[in-house]
Amino acid sequence: MAVSFTTDRMLRFGDCDISGTAYYPSYLNLLNGVVEEFWSWIGYPWHEIIWKERWGTPTVHLTCNFSKPSFFGDKLTFRVTVKKVGRSSVALDHEIWCGDELRWTVHQVLAASWLDKHTSMTWPDDVRAKLMSFLPKDDAANPHQPVQRG
């Protein structure tokens, strides 16, 4: 079973349109904050890897599905799951809940990138090992073998 990172965000007035409904650009800003928190949780805070090591994790693919609206004052629970670790990329799936209602889902691919050269890089060994540790054991044992999930 995969290990997931979970955190909460309150939907604030500035995240919503005039009717109090979540505004999708604000959703993406919230998501970015969650991803930043995820990297700190696994031991690689962005302020250290960006300023000291000069690499980052830009988003190279993002797919969102909005199933129910969220409103000003809602507490959203974000669950981040590592789905695949590549040579220089990581695929994350996000589920965003409000109580027991799934509000939206995201599939996101991040790439390891040298900030000064603006080029792809291979994950450092320790980072790759940490990311791989969040995959289900069958995925981590054979990362090139496709695994189907229901």
- The proportion of residues forming helix, as a percent range, comes to 25-40%
> How would you spell out the order of helices and strands?
EHHEEEEEEEHH
CATH architecture: Roll
Structural class: alpha+beta
**What name is given to the CATH topology?**
Thiol Ester Dehydrase, Chain A
Protein name: Acyl-CoA thioesterase
InterPro entries: HotDog_dom_sf
Organism: Aestuariivirga litoralis
Structural commentary:
This protein is an alpha+beta fold and about 150 residues long. The chain has one domain (about 5-135): Hotdog Thioesterase (Thiol Ester Dehydrase, Chain A), CATH 3.10.129.10. It is built from four helices and eight strands; from the N terminus they run E-H-H-E-E-E-E-E-E-E-H-H. A five-stranded antiparallel sheet has the order 1-4-5-6-3. The radius of gyration is 16 Å and the shape is globular. Residues about 140-150 have low confidence and may be disordered.
Helix-strand layout with pairing:
Blueprint: E1 4-10, H1 24-41, H2 46-53, E2 55-56, E3 59-66, E4 75-85, E5 89-98, E6 101-111, E7 113-114, E8 119-120, H3 125-132, H4 137-141
Antiparallel strand pairs: 1-4, 2-7, 3-6, 4-5, 5-6, 7-8
